[in-house]
Design a protein that fits this description.
It is built from three helices and 45 strands. With 543 residues, the chain is mainly beta. Among the domains are: 203 residues, no CATH class; 78 residues, Sandwich (Immunoglobulin-like), CATH 2.60.40.10.
Length: 543
C-alpha cells in the first residue's frame, strides 16, 4: 500500500489528473466512509477496526464505483454484540476488497449483511477477498447475508471458515430475491449448516424500480466443504442449496449455472440440493462421509424444471451419486456424460414421474472397488486423492452430443479450464497426469498448459481493481505479487481492436487509463502458460 501511495503521489506531481485515494485508520474510518461519493477509493490501513462498517446510502456509478480496500489480513474488523459487522443499506456500485472479519464467536451477528429493514435494497455490490472467521457461535450466524432485494452482486475470492452458515442469500419467506449474481473462487468450509443457501423467490418479488428483472446466477470455481464441524439431526444441511426462481412472470426463466466447483464431504445430507432451472456441469463432488451426492428435488413445494446435469465426477460411496425426485414433467431433464462411483444399488437414482429416461445418456457408473480403473485415486485422503482419469481410462468413449448445452457459460471447458472434445465422461478432459489444480481445501485456481482467451472465465491468476474503472487500475497476480514485466499486455476495445500495448508499473501494477475515449475495454494478458482476458473495464474519457 505504501508503494501504491507513493506512486500516486508521483503521478500527481507529474500533472496526472487521477482520483487521489483517501486513507483511513481505525480512528477515523467511520467518518470518512460516510462521506464517500462516486469514484472515491478508500484505503484502510492495517489495524483493528472495532466499530461497525456502515455502508449506508453510498451510491457510486457503473463508471465510478465507490471502492473500499484493506491491507489483507492486516486490516481486521472485529465483531460486536450490538450489530452486524458490515451493514449495507440503500447502496449501489460499491466494492469491498481485501480485509478480514473476526466475529469473536459472538452468536447472531453476521459478518456482512444487506439488512432486511423495510424498503431496503442493495445492488451492484462487489465483495472480494474478504476473510471471515469467528462466526460459528450458532447456525443462524452468517458470513455473508442478504435479507433485502439484491441484484447484480459479485462475491469472489472470499474465505469463510467455521461459520454457522457461510452465505445466506435472500429472505426465508421468498420476498427478497437475490438476482443475477456471480459467486466465484470462494472457499467456504466447516460450517455448522449450509456452506451457502440461495432462497426461493416468490412471484412478483422483483418489484423494486430499476431492479434487474431477468438474468442468471453463476456459481463457479468455489470450494464447498462440510468435512468438519457439521451439525447433525434436524440441523443437518447440504453444502449448497439453491431454491426456485419465481414460478411465473419476471425471473421465471432464470437459471443457475453451477460449474467448476469442488464439493467435499457431508456426513448426513447431500453435497448439493436444488430445484427450479439448474445447469450443473464440470463439478467434482466427493462424499465419503455418509451423506449423498447431488440431488434435484422439490423444495418449498416447487418441483425441478429444466435440469441439465453433464460432465460431473461424483463419488458417494455410501449413497446415490445423482438423484432426481418428482420433477415437473413439462420440462426437459438431461443427464449426460457424468462419471459416478458408488456402492449404492442405483448410483443414478430416478424417483417419481417426469423424467424422460432417453435423456439419460453416456454416463459411466461403477462400484467403489473399481474406481481406480477409471481415475488415479478416489479415496478420502485429500493428500493423495486424484480423480483425474488414468492413462487410457474407460472414461473416454464416443463423442457425446453437446447441442443441449451450447448456451451455457464456458460449457466447452472442463474442471481445469481445458477445452473439451466431448469424448470424456466426468469433470475432466484428458487422461494421464493432471495438468491443473490439485484438489484441496484452499481457494481454487486455474492453471496449467491450456492456452485460450475466455472473457467468461476470469481466474485468480490476475485481478483488476477498481473494475469498473475510470482513470486508473491496478493489476495484481496470485501470491500478492504485482505486474510481471515478462508478461505482455494488450488493451482491447469492445470491437476486439488492439488500442494500446501498455506496460504497467512492475512495483505496483498501476496502469494509467487517462486519455482513453469513454467506452468499454478489455485487458488481454499473455503469459507462457495461457492467454487471459479480463472482464470489462470502463474508461470515462476524462483527461
Amino acid at each position: 500500500m505504501k508503494q501504491l501511495f507513493l506512486l500516486i503521489c508521483v503521478l500527481l506531481l507529474q500533472g496526472k489528473n487521477i482520483a487521489q485515494p483517501i486513507h483511513a485508520t481505525p480512528a477515523d474510518y467511520s467518518a470518512k466512509v460516510a462521506d464517500l461519493i462516486a469514484g472515491d477509493t478508500l484505503l484502510l490501513s492495517p489495524g483493528i477496526y472495532s466499530s461497525q462498517l456502515k455502508i449506508f446510502d453510498l451510491v457510486g456509478t457503473p463508471q465510478s464505483p465507490i471502492v473500499i480496500i484493506g491491507d489483507g489480513d492486516a486490516t481486521v474488523f472485529t465483531g460486536n454484540a450490538c450489530c452486524n459487522t458490515v451493514s449495507i443499506k440503500m447502496s449501489a456500485y460499491v466494492e469491498l476488497h481485501d480485509f478480514s472479519i473476526d466475529g469473536k464467536s459472538i452468536p447472531y451477528i453476521d459478518a456482512i449483511k444487506a439488512e432486511g429493514t423495510a424498503g431496503n435494497w442493495a445492488h451492484h455490490m462487489t465483495i472480494a477477498g474478504i476473510h471471515i472467521i469467528g462466526h460459528g457461535g450458532d447456525q443462524q450466524t452468517v458470513g455473508i447475508s442478504t435479507k433485502c432485494p439484491t441484484w447484480d452482486w459479485v462475491i469472489k475470492h472470499c474465505h469463510i471458515v467455521g461459520a454457522g452458515t457461510g452465505m445466506y442469500l435472500g429472505n426465508s419467506d421468498g420476498t427478497a430475491p437475490f438476482v443475477n449474481g456471480l459467486i466465484e473462487y470462494n472457499l467456504v468450509i466447516n460450517t455448522l449448516g449450509y456452506n451457502m443457501q440461495i432462497k426461493h423467490q416468490n412471484v412478483g418479488s422483483r418489484n423494486i424500480p430499476g431492479m434487474t428483472l431477468n438474468g442468471k446466477t453463476i456459481i463457479r470455481h468455489n470450494v464447498w466443504s462440510k468435512s468438519d464441524n457439521a451439525n447433525s439431526g434436524g440441523n443437518a444441511r447440504p453444502n449448497l442449496l439453491v431454491g426456485n426462481f419465481p414460478a411465473s412472470g419476471d425471473g421465471a426463466n432464470d437459471v443457475y449455472e453451477i460449474y467448476g466447483n469442488f464439493f467435499w464431504q457431508n456426513p448426513v445430507e447431500s453435497l448439493f440440493q436444488g430445484t427450479g432451472n439448474i445447469s450443473f456441469y464440470n463439478n467434482i463432488c466427493l462424499n465419503h462421509a455418509g451423506g449423498g451426492g447431488i440431488s434435484f428435488q422439490s423444495h418449498n413445494g416447487f418441483q425441478p424444471r429444466n435440469i441439465h446435469v453433464f460432465h460431473n465426477t461424483v463419488i458417494s460411496d455410501q449413497s446415490w451419486g445423482i438423484r432426481l425426485m418428482d420433477t415437473d414433467p413439462a420440462y426437459q431433464k438431461y443427464i449426460y456424460g457424468n462419471a459416478v462411483f458408488s456402492d449404492h444399488a442405483t448410483p443414478i437414482r430416478i424417483v417419481g414421474s417426469g423424467i424422460n429416461t432417453a435423456l439419460l445418456s453416456e454416463n459411466v457408473s461403477a462400484p467403489m472397488m473399481n474406481t481406480n480403473t477409471f481415475v488415479h485415486d478416489g479415496t478420502s485422503d485429500l493428500n493423495t486423492i486424484n480423480v483425474f482419469p488414468v492413462l487410457n481410462s474407460p472414461l473416454k468413449g464416443s463423442i457425446i452430443p453437446n447441442d443441449p448445452f451450447l448456451t451455457f457459460t464456458a460449457f466447452q471447458h472442463d474442471f481445469n479450464g481445458t477445452d473439451r472434445d466431448w469424448t470424456y465422461r466426468g469433470a475432466y478432459h484428458g487422461d494421464g497426469n493432471n495438468p491443473g489444480w490439485h484438489l484441496a481445501l484452499e481457494e481454487k485456481t486455474l492453471s496449467g498448459p491450456p492456452v485460450h482467451t475466455d472473457d467468461q472465465h476470469p481466474s485468480h491468476f490476475f485481478t483488476i481493481y477498481p473494475n469498473p474503472a475510470s482513470h486508473f487500475i491496478f493489476l495484481k497476480t496470485t501470491d500478492d505479487a504485482y505486474w510481471n514485466p515478462l508478461h505482455s499486455l494488450q488493451l482491447i476495445d469492445a470491437h476486439g481492436r488492439v488500442i494500446h500495448t501498455p506496460q504497467p508499473d512492475p512495483s505496483s501494477g498501476y496502469l494509467d487509463l487517462a486519455g482513453l475515449p469513454q467506452g468499454i475495454y478489455f485487458i488481454r494478458i499473455y503469459t507462457p502458460e495461457r492467454i487471459w482476458q479480463s472482464p470489462l473495464i470502463i474508461a470515462n474519457g476524462v483527461e
